[in-house]
Structure of Pyrroloquinoline-quinone synthase:
Amino acid sequence: MTALLSPDELEARLRDIGATRYHNLHPFHRRLHSGQCTLGEVQAWALNRYVYQACIPIKDASLIARCDDPALRREWRRRLADHDGTGQAGPGEADGGVARWLKLTDGLGLDREAVISQRYALPATRYAAQAYVQFVRERTLLEAVASSLTELFSPQIIGERVAGMLANYSYVTKETLAYFDKRPPQAKQDSDYALDYCKRHARTAEQQHAVMEALHFKCDVLWTMLDALEHAYGEEGHIPPRAFRPGQFPALPRND
Ligand SMILES: O=C(O)c1cc(C(=O)O)c2c(n1)C(=O)C(=O)c1cc(C(=O)O)[nH]c1-2
């Protein structure tokens, strides 16, 4: 166990974890952003990433449910609204991030119902997303907050992704990628709060260690999802039996 760090030293250690472990460094993202993915791979990325998007409000709701600090609950409620919408768009009209992600999968020609069913996602994607929800349910509140700290690094990758995909794929438009318009300011606000919370509440060396481990864990969740995509759809092409197959979607057996 390392010695007790100052809050700023803790922040520097967390930023260092992002600099060396965040999913912007994954080969699949490099291929995605530089135009080297096939249409099938771009579709597979969006379909699998829906599973992650859908789990985010569930893990945020779990955090709220076990939190006895009204200020933290209030802050986290905003995240729920960001993802699930406020309901102000009209009855049955979702206006949050999850709904905007479906505009992205629509734009890539994927069947909405099939995407929402999560049936054609890779098993590893589902397990990774479930592991994130489980982590937030079971670990300390401090670790649960710390596991969101990957968002410190997301504005940069979103910038690279939007510029790279618009430049490199003729079928990707600004409208297709509209999900990402709102994310950088939301992620900045979310991660500023979470970082400040961790710096204030990690008062012992053990708690600081737990915060850093939570960020490592979350980087692993994100990395695992991209490993699974690369393994299934990259050069080797080991698509699991039930998963999305480019070109054959959604004409797949429905009762499997
Ligand atoms: O596009 C990305 O690379 C990326 C990364 C992350 C992240 O680092 O966890 C999130 C998002 N996007 C995102 O859109 C999002 O809503 C989100 C919520 C969270 C979280 O842990 O609460 N991370 C992320």
Observations:
- Residues 251-256 have pLDDT under 50 and may be disordered.
- Residues 7-86+93-233 form a domain with the Heme Oxygenase; Chain A fold (CATH 1.20.910.10).
